[in-house]
Design goal:
The protein is 26% helix and 21% strand. It is built from nine helices and ten strands. β9 and β10 form a beta hairpin.
């Protein structure tokens, strides 16, 4: 792993083999990754919600291959995936992604236990599933055996029998919309009201597109995979286009084996 941006004295220093980058030629420790991806520090008014997305895309813009992101990922991408989860209070994910990716509860990681305890976090992040229909299999481990109870984000008009089924399975149903669907801004506010201010979304593309359109996304951690897939795969964000493109700034860029691990953020807090 090597750091390409921001450029520092260590980044520019020559290393054996002609490369010039901080950390080149070795695997970064989990503590180094945690420091590289730390959430912004709270301001004088205390913590405020910060929503980051973690996505992977091929060179030709595919967010999936055969409906899943794993084939275009890498071992280091998965280490960063685990680190981002370990930093978060809650992981927000769309129902279709839960179904396609076979989501399981987030697990406690011994490597991050002390860090989470010091930050006042529970041993593992909660998973929050965004769904209008609540068309989910509540017999799955995500609902029957999570370390932290799974949250269901839905609208006020959701079917009462599905809400009851979710609650019977042990999930906590949170209203985040006035109708059937979920309003992304209300979802962020509802999660913050529960004490979850370090938010992470792993998509899928439709949910991320809704968050972009609503203007609630603060940060994008995007892995650029050195692969080409062609085909009709989704981009990392779908849905209606925004009226004016949202401009983000590059915060950092790491590289390993041709994969670029980028981090972009809105200019709201110092990193």
């Amino acid at each position: 792993m090597r750091r390409l941006f921001p450029v520092t004295d260590e980044t520019a220093a020559p290393v054996p083999g002609g490369a010039s980058a901080e950390g080149a030629g070795r695997e970064w420790s989990l503590s180094e990754l945690a420091a590289a991806y730390a959430y912004p520090e709270p301001g004088p008014g205390g913590p405020v919600p910060w929503l980051r997305a973690n996505m992977v895309s091929t060179l030709d813009g595919a967010a999936q291959h055969d409906g899943r992101s794993q084939p275009i990922s890498s071992a280091t991408d998965m280490r960063i995936f685990g680190t981002l989860r370990a930093l978060a209070d809650v992981v927000v994910v769309g129902a279709e992604t839960v179904r396609q990716e076979g989501y399981r509860p987030a697990r406690a990681r011994e490597d991050f236990a002390a860090m989470r305890e010091a930050a006042g976090q529970r041993p593992a992040p909660a998973i929050a599933v965004v769904t209008a229909s609540l068309d989910l299999d509540f017999s799955l481990p995500l609902f029957t055996s999570p370390l932290v109870p799974t949250l269901i984000l839905t609208g006020a008009a959701a079917a009462a029998d599905r809400v009851a089924a979710a609650e019977k399975a042990g999930a906590r149903v949170v209203t985040a919309g006035d109708g059937i669907g979920v309003d992304p801004a209300l979802a962020v506010r509802a999660l913050a009201d529960l004490g979850h201010t370090r938010l992470l979304t792993e998509g899928g593309p439709r949910l991320l597109g809704q968050m972009v359109a609503a203007g609630v996304l603060d940060e994008l951690c995007l892995t650029v995979s050195p692969m080409l897939t062609a085909g009709e795969a989704q981009r990392i964000a779908g849905g209606p286009a925004v009226t004016v493109p949202h401009r983000f700034g590059l915060v950092s860029m790491l590289e390993e084996d041709g994969f670029l691990f980028t981090r972009y953020g809105r200019a709201r807090a110092a990193y």
